[in-house]
Amino acid sequence: MRVHTIKNDLLQSCTYVLYDDTDFVFLVDCGEPRPIIEWLDENHKVVNSIFITHCHYDHIYGLSEIFKYNPHAQIFASSETILGLRDENKNLSYIIGDVAFGADISNVHVIEEGNSHIGTLQVETFYTPGHSDDCYCYIIENKIFT
Length: 146
Known about the structure:
This protein is an alpha/beta fold.
């Protein structure tokens, strides 16, 4: 598995694109959609799943556009993160002001602490509150995403 890092414009958060020789990729967090879509088009890839570390706006603001581009993608997040996807107080989108966040998403799955098989991936999930009460870290093929 290889990792392509996209540094997002907003607050300098990162989106990680996990990929191999198949057509599918996995994202960790979903910021700026334009560079994600450009990378997918250039590399002839499709998003299979998106892992969300926490619900702060800079980690989720690209979800609506990615779902327009690929409506079959799946989201994996904690139950608290899922609640925060549409709650401007939890995801802090009210701070941005004129940027409206209205994630029109589906295929959302609760992921809990422990080991899971997601597609072809073995994913180890850890609850890591601190920065946010809904923070999770993911270990995927010996790489940790926080």
